[in-house]
Design brief:
Chain A is built from nine helices and twelve strands. Chain A is α/β, with parallel strands linked by helices. In chain A, strand 11 and strand 12 form a beta hairpin. Chain B is α/β, with parallel strands linked by helices and 450 residues long. Helix content of chain B is 25%, strand content 38%. Chain B contains twelve helices and 19 strands. In chain B, the strands form two sheets. A ten-stranded mixed beta sheet of chain B has the order 2-1-5-7-9-11-13-15-17-19. In chain B, strands 3-4-6-8-10-12-14-16-18 form a nine-stranded mixed beta sheet. Chain B is globular and about 70 Å long. Chain B starts with a helix and ends in a 16-residue tail after the last helix. Classes of the chains: A alpha/beta (255), B alpha/beta (450). The interface between A and B is medium-sized, with 32 and 24 residues.
């Protein structure tokens, strides 16, 4: 059997009784980069939230198999331990919780999940140092509260830093390019590319083609009205950039 | 019939006994307290303004014993007690029930110009000093204060003479240890003369947890010109312990006061802070935190009177309420007609960790002159669900994430604690408290929570 990392099948989900995802099918294999694009309100962020286990959303039908594990049955923390990572469009500020304590709790929770002893203080700091370099994150940020007072660029770099520390098998980057200037975008994308391996995969959720200049997708999907209505190669992103979403909308709405 | 009557009749039937076990400087102000009590007629209850969550009438209703004949306690309670605060070397005194006992180290190391002594014994040796201060601020202004004056027989006096700056913190540990339900009438008098400075740490504990205890505490603090006091108070008793603690402060010109109150474990407690700023260029900081669960009730009330111009005060109150616990905050900043250029701020922030916890808050400003900077505000909310989810997606289990957020909520109050070394200790105590363990002090042999 071929190696499948994530298989989403007929996924339906909504919020407060309103259905937003209306049958998502998506297959991701190790080493692949998928881009999910679509107009505002098409359900992109809902899809990432549902996969990560945001309790705001209710799954009403369908399944998501994550390397043999029933993803939707797991708590958000266990999804993380199993190798799922969500980079937030709007990373949450947590006043009073330092980055260091936050990451130590995260790292050691994962180790506990796999019956490993906690990292020693020395090893942990070494790990932090190594991973910080990937996104050129300032050491000073480590002693600050999580995301508190971080600039837009620092918040997104912090997301990729956490991704580097947790070494996920599947990363979902939700609108990672929003709020980034071009330099920050290059650093963030560079970090994502450095973390890419044969074993892991990435789903990039974005409005614009711009990010895809830096993170090259193997597949591009168009999400519209809660369904993936069109899939193609990287050239589809360019076509969207040129023609907008209207032609897709017309095609779908006329069916 | 009010619960006040049983105490009036206790006093009237035992007047001679009470007086014979206390010095004249204490006895001489009892008659005024008695007539004040009779005038009040009852304690405030929930229908009275400022007592929404807590009825003093109910608190005083049980028939507590009062140790009026001064039956001595087992001395080893004081000797066995070691409430170590790591990295804080203190001059330690112990109040068992309501009697003060200094430790040997206190007697040996108390520096020149500093008095930490039993109120009863100082009232014998220096009655003029005690008479000049005792009761002058509490002044029978309400029933609880008058009752304390009516029944007090001992207490603690801290006096720091002019210009003396005390390095070491003075620590007073209040312990209940009795073989019956007991009311402890506790009295504290703190006088810092001009340009003196000191740090005071109070810790409340209860032993023999089967019995009900009620602590009636009145603390009067006089800060003379340029004096500086850091005052910390940690409540860590048992759910069978109730307390009404009233703090009265008078600040003269250029004096500084920081008060850190921490309620960790107690059944029902009311803490009152009355501060009169009578001189210019004073600084007053109140940082108070309360953590409650089960059916605990924590009621804090603060009144800062700006009676002179150009002084600064700042209040921060934070409550973390879980289960069926209840919290109340009544805070008033009063700015007198002449107190121009006053800066006074007040903030109350509360976190409800369960749907059954309740918080009542009433921040108030009364300003009678122009040209001041004042603000007040209150907010009550729940744990940030977005932050919880964010932490979970990074693998932090929900329970641990909740705890980290609750601790984070208290971080800024703890940061304001003025005694070095105590901040780390408080962080630790809060962590232990939130994880459901009783925070037993490191080397303590007293087993308060057995």
């Amino acid at each position: 059997m071929e190696d499948i990392l994530l298989k989403v099948d007929n996924l339906h989900a909504g919020i407060e009784g309103k259905e937003i995802l209306k049958g998502i099918n998506l297959t991701v294999r190790p080493g692949e980069v998928h881009a999910i694009m679509g107009p505002n309100g098409s359900g992109k962020s809902t899809l990432s939230g549902v996969l990560a286990g945001d309790p705001k959303f209710t799954v009403t039908d369908g399944s998501a198999d994550f390397h043999g594990v029933d993803l939707l049955a797991l708590s958000p923390e266990d999804r993380s331990h199993e190798g799922l990572f969500l980079s937030f469009q709007y990373p949450v500020e947590i006043p009073g919780v330092s980055m260091v304590n936050f990451m130590r709790a995260a790292v050691n929770a994962k180790r506990k999940y796999f019956n490993e002893p906690p990292l020693s203080a020395g090893d942990f700091l070494k790990l932090m140092r190594q991973k910080r370099e990937i996104v050129e994150l300032d050491n000073k940020l480590a002693s600050r509260s999580v995301n508190e007072g971080f600039s837009g660029g620092e918040k997104k770099r912090n997301e990729i830093f956490q991704m580097a520390v947790l070494e996920p098998r599947l990363s979902i980057l939700d609108e990672t390019d929003s709020g980034l200037d071009i330099d920050a975008l290059r650093i963030v994308a560079g970090g994502v590319n450095r973390l890419k391996t044969e074993r892991n995969a990435t789903i990039v959720i974005t409005h614009y083609q711009r990010l895809l200049d830096y993170i090259k997708p193997d597949f591009v999907h168009i999400l519209y009205k809660g369904r993936i209505v069109y899939s193609g190669g990287p050239e589809l992103a360019l076509e969207l950039e040129e023609k907008g979403y209207d032609w897709i909308k017309q095609q779908v709405d006329n069916q | 019939m009010s619960s006040i009557d049983q105490y009036i009749s206790l006093y009237e039937h035992n007047r001679e006994t009470i007086d014979s076990h206390a010095p004249h400087a204490l006895n001489r102000i009892r008659p005024d307290a008695l007539s004040a009590l009779k005038r009040f007629g009852r304690f405030p209850g929930k229908r009275d303004e400022g007592y929404t969550k807590l009825s003093l009438e109910d608190m005083f209703a049980p028939d507590f014993g009062v140790n009026i004949t001064r039956v001595p306690f087992a001395v080893d309670v004081a000797l066995s007690f070691r409430c170590d605060v790591p990295n804080v070397s203190t001059l330690l005194g112990v109040v068992v029930n309501d009697s003060f006992r200094p430790t040997a180290t206190l007697l040996k190391n108390c520096p020149e110009g500093v008095t930490v002594e039993s109120l009863a014994s100082l009232a014998e040796s220096d009655p003029d000093f005690v008479e000049a201060y005792l009761g002058k601020l509490s002044n029978n202004r309400d029933a609880a204060a008058a009752l304390n004056t009516l029944l007090m027989q001992d207490g603690v006096v801290v006096r720091v003479k002019s210009g003396v700056k005390l390095d070491k913190a003075i620590q007073i540990v209040n312990i209940f240890n009795a073989s019956a339900d007991l009311m402890g009438v506790r009295r504290v008098l703190v006088v810092l003369e001009a340009d003196a400075s000191a740090r005071l740490l109070f810790c409340d504990h209860s032993q023999s947890g089967d019995f009900k205890y009620l602590s009636s505490q009145v603390t009067e603090i006089f800060l003379h010109r340029g004096a500086s006091l850091d005052f910390c108070d940690i409540e860590e008793s048992t759910e069978q312990t109730s307390r009404i603690a009233q703090l009265f402060v008078s600040q003269e010109e250029g004096s500084n006061l920081t008060v850190n109150g921490t309620s960790l474990t107690v059944g029902t407690t009311r803490n009152e802070y009355h501060v009169d700023i009578t001189g210019e260029h004073c600084d007053t900081e109140l940082a108070v935190m309360a953590i409650a669960d089960n059916n605990q009730i924590i009621d804090n009330s603060a009144r800062i009177n700006h009676l002179a111009s150009r002084s600064h005060s700042n209040q921060l109150f934070k409550y973390l309420l879980d289960d069926h616990s209840q919290g109340a905050f009544e805070g008033l900043i009063y700015v007198a007609p002449d107190a121009v250029h006053t800066e006074a701020y007040q903030s109350d922030r509360n976190l409800l960790a369960s749907t059954d916890a309740r918080m009542h808050t009433a921040p108030q400003l009364e300003i009678y002159c122009d040209d001041v900077k004042c603000s007040h505000g209150a907010a009550t909310g729940q744990l940030d669900q977005n932050a919880l989810f964010y932490m979970q997606t990074r693998g932090v289990p929900r329970a641990e994430a909740r705890m980290m957020l609750m601790q984070a909520f208290m971080a800024d109050v703890i940061d304001r604690v003025a005694i070095d070394g105590l901040r780390d200790r408080l962080r630790h105590l809060v962590e232990r408290r939130l994880s459901g363990e009783h925070a037993v002090c490191g080397d303590c042999a007293a087993s308060c929570h057995n």
